[in-house]
Design brief:
Shape: elongated
Number of strands: 0
Length: 134
Amino acid sequence: MSAHDIHAGHAHDAHDDHHDAGPHSTFSGYMTGFVLSIILTAIPFWLIMAKVIEGRSTAVLVLGAFAIIQILVHMYYFLHMNSKVEAGWTLLSTIFTVIFVVIALSGTLWVMFHMNANMMPHHDAPAAVTAPQS
């Protein structure tokens, strides 16, 4: 066996050690995601239970913001979705799905609201009914 054969053999073995660019999970990564999830659950719970936020619309916006942040934490730390995995196709398909769901939900709510406003009879206060005099 020549030196060239040995070197070529090692070069071939290097190709067999091919590692995919997929996510590699670590305990510290999962713990970071877990702690962030607990914090992002506890803060909104405390805000509502302690009645820190007075206005209903403000509370909905704040809770919605915490929910979106928590979804992003779950996607990154637990689902390992980022722009590097599978050349970004997983993230791109998720963005498409989110856009599609938002369009479908907002369209459904828009149609239902306008059907309610345009199709329901108006309930005006009835005028005082007087009995006919005989």
